[in-house]
Fold:
Amino acid sequence: MPENANHPFSFDIVQDGRTILSQYDNHIVRKLSDMQGQFFDQLAYDAILAEEDKVIYEVYEVKRPEVSGELLHGLSIVHPGTVGSEHFMTKGHFHEVLETAEIYYCLHGEGYMVMETPDGDCAVEPLKAQSVLYVPPCWAHRSVNTSPTDDLVTFFIYPAHAGHDYGSIEEHGFRKVVVADKDTPIVMDNPVWQSKDAR
Ligand code: F6R
Ligand code: ZN
Structure:
């Protein structure tokens, strides 16, 4: 955050030919071991983790005061890969202040945003370079990279007082998952969602 938090500032998204913020305050690295219970194929998860704790995604955050009126923003990079047939993805979350929205601008790659509401409405929207995705208030969201080779890079913006609620997704998962079927990604019901819920 700039020294004078209320002064305008600008930054670049490409640096040295790499898609990365020229200015950021936080770099979060999420590895496979941080995603325990999130991929539906637990055997495949355990097998990969036994070999290597791969980096699944990274987030570069620009810090702002976490108050209403401010906007938090940054870059999310989901690396390519699968656990079993399920594509690499973010953990996903509701916003703690449920009635807050978010905008994602896709800069590179291809994938999907998997979304659902507390009432069980589901939506899965494509993410592709130069497309914008609007996540309305009350929708949990998770980005999924379906490219076999390329990073999925998105720039996100959301109200700074939103906060994050990871708990219910960690407990139940999303109702929909995105899997690789030969060369085509397909969306299907999460095979372990029901059983987790019933526990
Ligand atoms: C913020 C937001 C994104 C995600 C990022 C990583 O509200 O939606 O910045 O935080 O894509 O995903 P999570 O937070 O689910 O690990
Ligand atoms: Zn969010």
User: Anything to note?
Assistant: The first helix runs from residue 42 to 51. The two ends are 44 Å apart (CA to CA). Residues 59, 76, 90-93, 102, 141, 143, 156, 158, 164 surround fructose -6-phosphate (ligand 1) (CB under 6 Å).
